[in-house]
Design brief:
Elements (H helix, E strand, L loop, with lengths): L5 H22 L3 E9 L3 E8 L9 H4 L2 E9 L6 E5 L2 E6 L3 E2 L5 E7 L7 H4 L3 H6 L3 E5 L4 E2 L2 E6 L8 H15 L1
Parallel strand pairs: 3-7
Antiparallel strand pairs: 1-2, 2-3, 4-5, 5-10, 6-9, 7-8
Length: 176
């Protein structure tokens, strides 16, 4: 495989970051819905994740909670990826992120450099989840201003942490 062009690399990053999100959400059997795409310093994709699997007799609106995810993919050479040091990713946010009235998270999927992306293209969803390459940051209400964000590498976005994000969402709603 040859080294991809800028456009191909960007598309591959977006596709892999979406695949990672679907693999994580699928692992816990939750529902997911893409609600929008936007381009600022990189392609961003907005999702709603609902903590129920839909089936006979189930209604998502009445029997579930949701979180919003604003998904971004980066590599160490991305202009938005400032640096990684001491267990923290320094991420440069160029545009404001809104919470839309619900628990919202920025999820950064850290992908390999252009020359090494080939090794990721044909892996299974299970292998992708095992890479533990995505990290979340809670967007404060009502919005997150542009600037440098410190995302702890301990904030791994995976099938285990997604449950914690929903518990936090449910507890907050119960207090309202």
């Amino acid at each position: 495989m040859s080294i991809p062009s800028d456009a191909e690399f960007s598309e591959m990053q977006s596709t892999l970051s979406v695949a990672y999100l679907y693999a994580v959400v699928g692992k816990v059997n939750f529902a997911i819905n893409e609600v929008g795409r936007h381009y600022d310093q990189a392609l961003g994709i907005d999702f709603e994740v609902v903590n129920c699997s839909l089936g006979a007799g189930r209604k998502a609106a009445s029997e579930s909670h949701e979180i919003k995810i604003q998904l971004k993919s980066v590599s160490s050479s991305s202009t938005s990826m400032i640096r990684e040091k001491d267990g923290v990713i320094k991420y440069k946010l160029d545009t404001q992120l809104n919470t839309y009235g619900v628990n919202s998270y920025l999820v950064i999927v850290q992908l390999p450099e252009r020359s090494k992306l080939e090794n990721w293209v044909d892996i299974s969803p299970e292998e992708l989840v095992l890479r533990r390459c995505a990290f979340f940051y809670k967007i404060p209400s009502p919005f997150l201003k542009p600037g440098i964000i410190d995302i702890p590498k301990s904030n791994v976005f995976d099938h285990n942490s997604i449950h914690s994000l929903f518990v936090s969402s449910i507890n907050k709603e119960d207090l309202l």
